[in-house]
Amino acid sequence: MVSADTHKKAQTDETIMEVTRWTVHIEVRLKLRASARFDTIRNLVHNFIASSERLALPCTLDGWEEVPELASSVEKITVCESLCTESSLSMEEMNIQIHVYKPSDGDAFEEFSNSSGNVNDDDDTMAASLCELPNRSHEGLWDSLIYADDIKMKLLDYIHATLVFSDANVDFNLVSWNRVVLLHGPPGTGKTSLCRALAQKLSIRLSHRYSHARLLEINSHSLFSKWFSESGKLVQRLFTSITELVEEEDGFVVVLIDEVESLTAARVGAMAGTEPSDGLRVVNALLTQLDKLKHRKNVLIMATSNLVKAIDSAFVDRADILQYVDLPSREAIYEILRSCLCEIIAKGIVLPVSVPTLKQVQIYELVNKPAGRSDDVQDRSKNVGLRLLALASACRVQGMSGRALRRLPVLALARYIGIGGIVHTTHQAGEPPRERQGALVEVWLDGMEKAVKEQAKESEKLI
Ligand SMILES: Nc1ncnc2c1ncn2[C@@H]1O[C@H](COP(=O)(O)OP(=O)(O)OP(=O)(O)O)[C@@H](O)[C@H]1O
Ligand SMILES: [Mg+2]
């Protein structure tokens, strides 16, 4: 989705200069009740951007609120990350693509129940759910996921490559792909979230090709763990629905098969069980259905697993991309913890302090020692960054997942800071002491350090 092309630009003195143009995607989110036409907004945003000299990459744009038509319809304008390593680009260096979208509200879910319809059957776990994209419930997810190697860009590039091949009408007998991506790795590394985030991103980026998009999430566990009678019918029903969805050629469909290793469990179970033919038939039917879908341009199958060795090899072989999603590196952990801290500062739980970016803190680490206890704003920010980086190293040693990291602030507050700890008393000369809502960042850091140590002790007990 991100590319650079080189244009030859004639200059007045007749010399030819090569100008590299980077594709930069701008996403414009509209308000729920906005009624303006998308192309009107696109033109207004284009004019607004053209009036500035350079754009920072990536960033959230501001200043557009001064344009009344934009102020009344637009909620947010984001300049997305690009392959370009520069921190900003001039208008001449960019090939701007503006994507205007209005996410649907979270209530557009439709569910496929596993229930047999029998009132006495208490196993009515949902086998699948369908949601309209882009969806408000998935907003911000893409940016919240942080990986050391650029998995997110790799996945977008894969989709881009398949579009290029599809558009060129490449003969499928000679060059073919299956439209299947398999993400695997330890629990809590954001695999399911990444699939949802990618589906959301595609629905925004491909909105000029498809008028609508949908995400169908299949819960493999509830679908494949119970074999007798119902699963077969359910797989059939599901794929009939998927085929119907995909037949609407102006709609894009992402199918997420979560915890796909249950597929293999089903096959093995079927071999050992009393009705082997039923189980096998269903798994084979699923693989056959996937093969049929590969001829459709407007579908993408994403699967996740934390036990890749247990996945049916016939399924693994169909994956165009087999991507390992690792536990976060120290740098990724720093960014995850930083995003947690910035959020609770924004919400008033911790008193305001500037938290250095990863780049800044890496420089502090290289050239500076901690500034010691200091009230100077910059020194304090540097100390916060260095302590957070040390905390990130401790989390890395323990091999903590993204999921474990994101719950640390809650644990720190509950166990070590206490609700009373977030009321802070300020003393200013000549004035009575004042109570302010919010903990000092140092108190929060103490709590986090204790929570990580506690976690380490608990994990040792598990071994
Ligand atoms: N790399 C990451 N960056 C930021 N947040 C992350 C990361 N990995 C996980 N998380 C957070 O952890 C939570 C759990 O993620 P998710 O359920 O997608 O993981 P998973 O890999 O599917 O886990 P499982 O294998 O147990 O199904 C999410 O709320 C997500 O925000
Ligand atoms: Mg998952």
What number is the mean pLDDT? 85
Fold-level CATH name of the largest domain: Rossmann fold
Number of strands: 16
* Low-pLDDT stretches: 7-12, 116-122
Biggest sheet strand line-up: 8-9-11-12-13-10-14
Q: Please tell me the CATH architecture of the largest domain by its name.
A: 3-Layer(aba) Sandwich
- Provide the structure class: alpha/beta
Q: End-to-end distance, in Å? A: 44 Å
Largest sheet, in brief, is: 7 strands, mixed
Indicate how many domains the architecture comprises. 3
Q: What percent of residues are in strands?
A: 15-25%
Q: What is the alpha-carbon Rg in Å?
A: 26 Å
User: Which ions and ligands are bound to the chains?
Assistant: adenosine-5'-triphosphate, magnesium ion
CATH superfamily of the largest domain: P-loop containing nucleotide triphosphate hydrolases
Question: Class of the largest domain, according to the CATH hierarchy?
Answer: Alpha Beta
What's the overall geometry? globular
How many helices in DSSP terms?
15
